[in-house]
Amino acid sequence: MTLLKPLWMQPAAADAEIDYPGSEMRQLLRALAGDTREGAMAPASAIVVQRGAGANFSVDVGAFQAIIRGDDVSDQGCYLITNTAVSNVVTPAAPGSGTRLHRLVAQVRDKRANGSYTTYDWILSLLQDTGGGQPALPNTALDLATISISSGQASVTNANITQNYGVLRSLGFFASMQPQKSTQIGAGAWNVFSTWTDFSGANWPAITFTVPPSGKVRVTLGFRFAAQSGVNARVGYRMSGTDVRSAATIWAVALAGGNIFGLERSYLFDNLTPGGTDTITPQWWQDGSGINDLVDGLLLVEPVQV
Q1: What range defines the domain where residue 88 resides?
Q2: Sequence-separated (6 or more) residues with CB below 8 Å from residue 218
Q3: pLDDT tens track for 199-211
Q4: What residue spans of the chain are helical by DSSP H?
Q5: Do 117 and 41 lie in a common domain?
Q6: Nearest partner of 246 among 201, 222, 280, 215, judged by Cα
């Protein structure tokens, strides 16, 4: 059993200094990241994009920070890397035939952990597909993107780039982001048919929120409802802003005419844009005339960290 010193201890005046090697320091990042997790920290937009000065056979890598798990030796810990400005990385040109899948990685080169290195740094490295398929991910490297280049292609555009990195939570971000709720104030006039209609802000206010680094939020909708006889109705919500989702695909429930319900339903959105600004607006739908009775409506938006 190997016991590492707890971080950080300070000796008394008469005692010798306590030495903390880099591997022990890196255990702190490992603990904060979540044991074996690695990834970028709350990027506001895609890290790897087509060349900003005009598309050619290269890509731009934006400023970002990430945590990379050390895989060269056991108990290596995690490394924090930082890119402070846009970096351009050249890709191969289009192949004579078929499609090549190149892998762009951020790789840590720590001579102490891997004797084949001569440096203590990290680099952006494009691993070329020479015809045998996408190269494997090397040790102590973060998989940033797959770049697909096909025969006859004139340049690399965003359509050819797939972001591969995970997004890690930011402790400071979540300390400031709390669940948000909106409660129904009044039913409003149900006088539009066969189309989704927003509740007015006076009847049921919308919720605007910032998407957390994970790209995930849980939305919960609850209410009590009495549908008019012969009138079918639905209650749901739509998402607008950086991400767009229609109520037609995420509505809560359909209600048959003449029935009374008390309902609650949650939905996990797991592919939103980290750092984006989105709005959840409650909506209603009915297929015929008559005012439906909706009370005790509650809308809840909660950030999901991982």
Answers
A1: 22-168
A2: 266, 267, 268, 269, 300, 301, 302, 304
A3: 999 999 999 998 8
A4: 22-33, 171-176, 247-250
A5: yes
A6: 280
